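Lab channel / #folding
Pinned by the channel admin:
"Please post every new chain as: sequence first, then the structure tokens as a reply. Keep commentary short and put observations after the output so the thread stays searchable."

First post following the new format, from NK:
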Amino acid sequence: LKIPKDNQQGSEFIFAVKKYSNNVVVRSNYVMKSLTGNYVSKSLNCLFLVSTDIDTNTNLKKIYMMIADILEKNNFKIYLKNHPRPGARLDLKFKKYKEIDPYLPYEFVKKDFRFLIGCASTSLVHAPKETTVISILNMLSCTKKEKELRKKHLTALDSRKKIKFISKINDITTLIKQL
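Reply from TO:
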């Protein structure tokens, strides 16, 4: 697809997939583990799927940093995957983290995660059932209508009703205790 750049100067190509063909195995590492029973990752890995969004970059970074601090204090290993489109990337760095190639689709990341955290990324819907999926959408300082539109999009795609929409930072601590 060819779309206008965020700065309204020129255009850029993006990779878009509506549905993978049947011959693509998505997250085979989970499928194999799921066959032996209820698989729960023994690793305390957390992946942040980040991008610029309907809030200021400053507020998005602040929210993600506070969540990462709590996770690090609870011995989680932090991973960061930015948006594949350069114009939508959030300039975010954590204290200790590993970065995943932004061009690699989330569905092909060969790592298991206890937590998958993002805002309104469609990739949140594609997480394996063993992963706790968290959206920061309710924490944004944008209008209620903007939040509702994004949430409606995600919940329409989320047939398993898997996404947890947190409203405050302490919700992360509660989710950690539930592991």
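NK: Residues 21-39 have pLDDT under 50 and may be disordered.
TO: also worth noting, The first strand starts at residue 2 and ends at 4.
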